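During the reporting period the student researcher (J.K.) took over the structure-prediction task from the postdoctoral fellow and processed the backlog of single-chain submissions. One of the processed entries is reproduced below for the supervisory committee.
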Amino acid sequence: MKATDHQSNVSYMPATLLVAAHGTRSADGAATTRALVDAVSAARPAVPVSLCFLDVASPSLPDALDDLAGTDVVVVPLLLSAGYHVHTDIPSIVSGRPAVRVTAHLGPDRLVVSAVASRLREAGGDPAASVLLAAIGSTRPAARAEVSAAARLLADELSRPVDVLPLGPDVEAALERRSKPVAVATYLLAEGGFLDALRSAVGSAGVVADPIGVHSALVTLVWARYGAACG
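J.K. obtained the following structure tokens:
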């Protein structure tokens, strides 16, 4: 057999896509994350896809990488903002693993914002309502800057002004300072405690959109991140 014949019979094994989600204690939130990763996998069945978590849930990122030792891996952080996990945690864990590549996180990409806008449109509400983008607050300037950028992109998408509403213990006080009614877009991937508190705080003062959840725009973006890493 000629060398070229042998080479033609060798199948190419694509790098495994390892989705690194934050993790949540919310059963609904965990189910949404798994459903999103199932949708990602279904979009390109020829590529192995796995899920791991950066906090709370298992398998952890180190355990998942240990299980995939000896294979090429592309880690896509399923995170909207550049916080501790993006800048410190993930780089520390993948250090010394030459077969592992890490992509950029998801936000603030136009695909993410288009998904946020579609969820807000689904929520309905008063067309004259003040539009707010609810996002988890951060002490990191880079994370806050990304949320502000997402709010500007959302304003362009909706052709309406959009203000940021930081999620945290002061969300009720922050809402009191806003004109009513409100239409709150959620810069969140899945259900969880932050969204529960937000809905309670808004009450009858407006509408709160669902989190992004399983959305075709996110599936497209995850594969775009993977493709960029694979070159």
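The committee noted the following: The chain is about 45% helix and 20% strand.
J.K. will present the remaining backlog at the next meeting.
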